[in-house]
């Protein structure tokens, strides 16, 4: 009897795009609350303190800045170094298990070279000293650096501070990240700030499931790019019986949750404005589901600052920035290719809505669509 093999269904680039936009709440704004959206997305990248406000506004039906500020102040959301060694805004509950889960990636990034440079500094001693200082009171980066320099004179102080941030889960306390406020980072341990211990063990299976819910369908390499972890093939293979398996047009194996949304490739996609460093741009090994190779070269700047991006028909077609001129705030949109009259009108409408959120006194005439370049 002939043996037949079944090949996984192939998802086109546009099909992957529409599925991804649906997961990222970019096809249709969500009625979920701020904390529910943060949990669904497994956080938002937040090294630019105000960026998550625009990221939530573009994904939620009704979002006001105070919605997020209040969550930071009541400690139900926190800003902490997580995936890829970058600051993320996550719920308190996610913070407790995500940090132990991605800790190996942070340790690997620090690496043995760090400890050779810091010869004579024992990691356990560094942790004990840092926790003792932070248990006394929240500390600014400058304070921690001074204390570290006094304790280990002659060592590379920036490397000492970075090692402490890697070894000890530290949240950035308010007012950092509060709408309209500024200031240098001030740190507290996650355990003290949240009055709860970190999880005692990593949970790679939950990490993979949560990633697929927000970013799938995806390959093992995609999950690893987002999380910073390696050797996730074993975890994915263990989950294989509960997952759907697809392939992309290049034949790469993709995994997904069975009941996750996968709209048709012809589903209309409205214009959307993504925030700086938005996870939607940075969370796959293969980013072509949302940004082409030429656009990737345009948006990845030398100083590693990822500007706000403009999605047209679901894909990155330009960048945006808020520009202050005297007492006027404007929104400048730079298309990467010419836009049709219909596309320009939609970009202008959505840009005006974003600008009214960022600067309530601005008007539609303050949206500037610059020549394509």
Question: What would you note in describing this structure?
Answer:
This protein has 373 residues and is α+β, with helices and mostly antiparallel strands. The chain has two domains: 9-266, no CATH class; 291-369, no CATH class. Helix content is 42%, strand content 17%. The chain is built from 15 helices and 14 strands. The protein has helices spanning 13-23, 34-41, 51-57, 65-73, 92-117, 123-136, 141-151, 157-167, 190-194, 204-215, 220-227, 233-239, 279-282, 293-299, 341-358, and strands at residues 9-11, 44-45, 77-81, 87-91, 139-140, 170-172, 186-189, 244-248, 253-256, 272-274, 308-312, 315-325, 328-335, 367-369. A hairpin with a 5-residue loop joins strand 3 and strand 4. Helix 5 (92-117) runs antiparallel to helix 8 (157-167) and helix 7 (141-151) crosses helix 8. The longest helix is centred in the N-terminal third of the chain and has 26 residues, at 92-117. It starts with 8 loop residues before the first strand and ends with a strand. The model has no long low-confidence stretch (mean pLDDT 94).
Top keywords for this entry?
6-stranded antiparallel beta sheet; 5-stranded mixed beta sheet; globular; 373 residues; alpha+beta
| Total number of strands | 14
Number of helices: 15
Strand order of the largest sheet: 2-4-3-6-7-5
Percent strand: 15-25%
Termini, distance in Å?
61 Å
Q: Oligomeric state of the chains?
A: single chain
Indicate how many domains the architecture comprises.
2
Fraction of residues in helices? 40-55%
Nearest-integer average pLDDT: 94
**How do the SSEs run, as a string of H and E?**
EHHEHHEEHHEHHEEHHHHEEEHHEEEHE
Give the overall shape. globular
| Coarse structural class | alpha+beta
Low-confidence stretches: none
Integer-rounded radius of gyration: 22 Å
The biggest beta sheet is recorded as:
6 strands, antiparallel
